[in-house]
Amino acid sequence: MKKLLVNLKRLFIIFSVCFTVLFLLFSMNAIYSIAAYKIKNWKDNFLFNLKRPITFTPKIETPAINNSNPMIFREALPEIPETAFTQDLLVLPKFDIQAPIWTVDSESKTKIYDSLKKGVVIYPTTSYPGGEYSIILGHSSRYPWEPGKYKAVFSLLNELVSGDRIYVFWKQKPLVYEVVDKEIFLPYPKGEWYTENVFPPNSSEKTLILQSCWPVGVDYKRIAIKAKLINW
């Protein structure tokens, strides 16, 4: 009996090691993206604090805002990238990520997955960017040998926080979205949730949802980032 337990323990260890190695290999693109972002973020913060002079900031009274003309306080629109003149484009400036936006004419998984090899995809039953409610899908991780260079384009979604910007260049028109919320949920039929239940459409604002699988490398839950249109 003792020998059997020892053998079972050994098999469990071997299985665990093999599973971990295979998971790391299959999720290599996503892990590299996350690690590169974390290292760059740490390096930038370290260099900033290293070079920053010691200063004492005087208290400045904030002038009252005149709400009679809210257009004055809109932030500047981003410059249109050269590629956006020939292809609709999603830009995540926090990560320096750009991805072509594609549309499909049905909810066919085959069509959606084929388009995801070339960039990100607008879910076909939702609005185009700039409309009331748009959902854009992207991969967080795929097998390294699969075709396409956007296998981990949404691997850093969880790093987005309220206030971050998302740029969409749609029909050569720049749209600026601000991240306002983030949720991780178990989708139907595994769970009871649809994206529209998690973030219900609101006719009083124009909403963009970025969505991908979660956790990275596992097709189990979904991560959804909600952003609102603030300039166009």
Offer a few descriptive terms.
single chain; alpha+beta; 2 domains; 8-stranded mixed beta barrel; 4 helices; 8 strands; 26% helix
What layout of secondary structure does this protein have?
Blueprint: H1 2-26, H2 28-51, E1 89-92, E2 97-103, H3 109-116, E3 120-122, E4 133-137, E5 165-170, E6 173-185, H4 195-198, E7 207-214, E8 221-231
Parallel strand pairs: 2-3, 4-7
Antiparallel strand pairs: 1-2, 1-5, 3-4, 5-6, 6-8, 7-8
Could you walk me through the main structural features you see in this protein, from its secondary elements to its overall organization?
This protein is of the alpha+beta class. It has 2 domains: 2-50; 82-231, Sortase, Chain: A (Beta Barrel). The protein contains 4 helices and 8 strands. The protein has helices at residues 2-26, 28-51, 109-116, 195-198, and strands at 89-92, 97-103, 120-122, 133-137, 165-170, 173-185, 207-214, 221-231. It has an 8-stranded mixed β-barrel with strand order 1-2-3-4-7-8-6-5. The relative contact order is 0.14.
Task: Predict the CATH topology of the largest domain.
Answer: Sortase, Chain: A
Q: What are the secondary-structure elements, in order, as H or E?
A: HHEEHEEEEHEE
What proportion of the residues is helical, as a percent range? 25-40%
Radius of gyration based on Cα positions: 22 Å
What is the mean predicted local confidence, pLDDT?
Answer: 81
Low-confidence stretches: 55-72
> What is the CATH-assigned architecture of the largest domain?
Beta Barrel
For the record, what CATH class of the largest domain applies? Answer: Mainly Beta
Supply the CATH superfamily name of the largest domain: Sortase
Biggest sheet overview: 8 strands, mixed, barrel
The overall strand count is: 8
